[in-house]
Amino acid sequence: MRSMCFRLRRGVLTLAALLTAAPALAQTAQSPAFTYQGLLRDGGDIVSGTYTLRFRLYDAASGGNQVGPSLTSSNVTVTDGVFSSTLNFGADAFDGSMRWLEVSVRQPPDGYTVLSPRHPVTAAPVSSFSLAPWVSNALGVHFLDGTVGVGTDMPLMDLEVRRNIGPGSSPRLGVSGLSPQGERWTSLANTGSAVLSWNAGSNLRLGTETAPGAGFTEVAQLTDQGWLGLGTGAPGARLNILGGNELSLAGGGDFVLGIPGGVNLAMDTNEIMCRFNGGPTTLFLNQEGGNVVISGGGNGKLGVGVTAPKETLHVDGDYYGRGHLWLHAYEGDGQSGTAYIQARDDSPVSSIGMVLRTKSGEALFDAITMRGPRVFIGGTETSLAPATMYLAHADGLLPGPAFRINRTQDDGSMIYFQTLGSTRGDISVVGNTVSYNAFTGSHYAWAEPSFELKRGMLVRMTGDNLALTDEAGSEVVYGIEPTTEANDSACLGVYLGVHSETPAIGHPMLLVSAVGNSDLMVADTGAGDIEPGDLLIASDVMGCAAKDDAARFASGHVVARAGAWVRWADVRPDADGIRRACISVLLTDFERGADLAALQRENDALRQRIERLEAALEVAR
To answer: Residue 74: how many CB atoms within 10 A of its CB?
Structure first.
């Protein structure tokens, strides 16, 4: 049976409340104990289970001196990440100075993991330290004697938050809460302009209440994508209005532009009307915008700006319109066949492309460019590599994904990836699961030319990294070299090959497989034949992995699991006498738990090695 070692990769604790453990009466001495409530995550995931928590109080955010005793809470139950623990560092722990709380977590038999950063604790964590004119009772804490200022001693409003406005700093007033789905908040801020914000992934609801916290009636809702619904909580457009009255000359309508009862343009779900004092008035289209030429002939063709239209509708000049363009099939009754949008003229040698252009602010964007059989999405033909289709997404200009695929039929493939007509992988949907098939996740890397890297070689990080671009936060390009040390903990992955696009980093761009399926070179190091599922670690043979050897290494830095058999008796040694093979593996990355007996043997071997080195140094003197 394979043993697994749980390890807390990353914990994030969120302070939810600091509560007194005694009644909040000014005349009665109170216990300095308080309740700490937090949210525990493991690698970003909310966890549940039984943990041991250790709490220490310090006088600095890092380093510093410990204040009071270390407190340990055993068998703490964590449910959906939420836990609480009563802490008492003694009455002398809080003397008015700032304190920081350090939290450590362990799940036996593992050791403690210290969570970072420390959390600031105010000088008054319990109400026994509260100062007048604040009043604390069973109903809460309140103040009745005037205005309240945060960051100012001269508040001009009942509650005023003041702070200098600068990069990363602005006055902010917020309301937050903790739910099983995570933290939720709403805030008012001043960053030079007024800002109302709330947590991503939720909507802002506006409405009325019959009493504080009761009888809520929604009147509007603004989504996190900027869609506003009036009379609806599920807007289907940037502005979605429901619930208006039937449009008439006397009034009504879902949307009214102008003065109600005066001159206005009104709309409902299927009408547009221009009204004046309860009666009809003219709706002008291009009243003073220049010449409008519309011509019609006996052949049923309509021309705008031309007197001899060539088709059913012929426009000379730009077309400007609002709404949908509906096309019926060219052949037959229009309900079947093909509808055409064509960029052409009558010349047999013409070369005409087509561009669908959009506008954002003052900028124009070529959304789709078509030239011959090639289609460019989000770019122009002059900026593209020779591909049949090219997709570029102007991030930040519009919300939503760059590319969306909706399969409206049963389960199956969504995208095929092919080379010269041969399928190399695909993305498919099975039930509610999106499956990435035959994929390998890779890192960017570079290496010195002296290293003769071959596909399938195991490589390690050198620490001499580059950046993909000069921009801040650019993707890292790892410096690599073949592995030469057994059980190397700095392994990055398996060398895949040279990237087809080489940026200006001064070296060829390489790819190193780190996740998924791969081919990996393995060597016979005496640990036995390799079976599917065996753990693989780095070996002393350059660029090769080997079967994990628990007898040799107390803990193993696993890089992959074998996906095939290797019977070394059937493998012919290379010229250097070493048996090597290339097998399919499932790349993984974890540390095999330590075996105490193996750890003792490893320590003894290291001690003997140190003694030999010391003896050699003594002789050298």
So the answer is: 11
Using CA atoms, how far apart are residues 443 and 440, in angstroms rounded to an integer? Answer: 10
> Could you tell me if 121 and 154 lie in one domain?
no
pTM over the 0.70 mark: no
For the record, the structure tokens of 239 come out as: 């502005």
Looking at the 3D structure of the chain, how many domains does it have?
A: 5
> What's the mean pLDDT in 561-567?
95
* Rg (the chain; Cα; Å): 35
189 and 248 share one domain: no
- Alpha-carbon distance of 511 to 497, in angstroms, equals 6
Q: Are residues 472 and 580 in the same domain?
A: yes
Q: What is the pLDDT of residues 102-114, one digit of tens each?
A: 999 998 888 898 9
Beta-sheet strand order (sheet of 422-430) = 412-419, 422-430, 433-437
C-alpha distances out from residue 378 to 169, 357, 475, Å: 36, 10, 23
**Residue 583 burial by Cβ neighbours in a 10 Å radius (0-12, 13-18, 19+):** buried
Residues 44, 115, single domain; the answer is: yes
Domain shared by 176 and 42, yes or no: no
Residues 218 and 70 in one domain: no
Domain limits at 152? 148-162+172-198
Classify residue 179 as exposed, middle or buried by CB count within 10 Å of its CB (0-12, 13-18, 19+).
exposed
DSSP 308-362: S-SSSEEESS-----S------SSTTSSSS--------S-TT----EEEEEEETT
Mean pLDDT, range 479-496, rounded to an integer: 95
Among left, alpha and beta (phi > 0; psi -120 to 50; other), residue 373 is: alpha
Tokens of 248: 């008439």
Whole-angstrom distance, CA of residue 541 vs CA of residue 401: 46
Let me know whether 459 and 562 are in one domain.
Answer: yes
Band (259; pLDDT cuts 50, 70, 90): confident
* Residue pLDDT, tens place only, 196-241: 776 777 777 787 878 777 887 888 878 888 888 777 878 878 888 8
Per-residue 3-state assignment (H helix, E strand, C coil) for 278-310: CEECCCCCCCCCCCCCEEECCCCCEEECCCCCC
**Residue 579: what pLDDT?**
97
State CA 294 to chain mean position distance.
53
Tokens standing for residue 487 = 């059980």
Q: Do 349 and 333 form a contact (C-beta atoms < 8 A)?
A: no
Hey, what are 474's tokens?
């650019």
Calpha distance 433→216 (Å, rounded) = 38
User: Region 357-364: what's the mean pLDDT?
Assistant: 80
